[in-house]
Amino acid sequence: MDRILIEGRRCLNGEITVSGSKNAALPLMVACLLADGVSTLRNVPQLRDVQTMSSVLQSVGAKVVTEGDRITIDARGFNTTEAPYDMVRRMRASVYVLGPMLARLGQARVSLPGGCAIGPRPIDLHLCGFEAMGAKVRIEGGYVIAEGEGMRGGEMNLEGTHGSSVGATCNVLMAAVLVPGRTVIRGAAREPEVGELVRMLNLMGARITGADSSTLEIEGVSSLQPIVYSTISDRIEAGTFLLAGAITGGDVMVHGARPDHMNALLEKMIQAGIGIEVLPDGVRVKPGNGINPTNIQTLPFPGFPTDMQAQFMALLCMAGGDSIVRETIYPERFIHVAELMRMGANIEMGVGEARVRGVKKLTGAPVMASDLRASAALVLAGLAAEGTTEILRVYHIDRGYEHIDAKLAAIGAKITRETGEQQPVAAATETTSS
Predict the structure, then answer these.
(1) How far is 389 from 8, CA to CA, in rounded Å?
(2) 116 a catalytic residue
(3) Catalytic pick from 11, 32, 116, 317?
(4) What is the C-alpha to C-alpha distance for residues 34 and 105, in angstroms, rounded to an integer?
(5) Across residues 279-286, what is the average pLDDT?
(6) Distance CA 269, CA 365 (A)
(7) Quick one: 346 and 334 in the same domain?
């Protein structure tokens, strides 16, 4: 099993380029099933989750070819109405195939999804959306079984207890584009990744209005055309690299970072005393005068993203005072707290929130990643800590960060990866994709 070793207390300086967005690429890959032909996606990150989605698409009859950051998906063989547990359990986003199955094949049998261990994340809103269009849905033996014969446009609200659902919005949208009639999705998620899906579907021939708003209106069409499309850059990876520069007191230019996708994060970084410069090609983080305490509360976009909560908490561990971190999207998303405390952090847990008391230093220790974003937080803490940090279960980080060790090594981090029984290999020698 791989592990990452970090020698901390090194100031990061230099330039780093963000990869394509994982959270955008996954639904875009599934959307290619909606066109009876060959589509190509560009700027797709080489990640474990992308590999998993490729396997899911192949399991339902599509042909998938990957060449660097380009993926070609031939959906002419898409004729399988079942996505089995062995496939879907690996990644929650696999449930996206429900929409295209109902739209093109008229029925679906898809295992309930798996994913990161950050508490229950039911797919009730997905199913409610399909039912609003006339699908007959039931759960039986751990599978969602849906019949789509006679589906027509309908109206629905996809805003749940903790805000709008990105997954439900994408899934229902992919079914609605090929369903006769007019569908209105209220309470639609406004995340950039949803807007990206809307734009791609429209270029394929869909008729969707309301991109980037909380109300989407869809006029169903009879068919879509294959497409060549490039994904947006990954706003969560960009934010993680900006925090890497900030937590080490460095000067780091993050190419491809889009401030329009990161306003809430950048505002909080500025409140924390971090120097931020927005440039035409990205965002630069500059040394400040220490880290100020500040409070954050996760919210649906355009609020502070839950996927940046753990990483920002790592930064606040080094602040000169107390901060409050409130998690409103996934209230149980605090598994990283125990590992940060192993490194000397002073964190007091409450219900759905944590009080972070800044310390003068963190100390390297063996820690274990529990989920994708928690693993990134441990990397950030390791960069700032005194001594050596050993991070186990790094397969979590490989789900969402493309060669993170190589990219950090290139701007001054002393970070190595051990694979199995092999000797450590300097991350700076590993290749990265453009």
Answers:
(1) 8
(2) yes
(3) 116
(4) 10
(5) 97
(6) 26
(7) yes
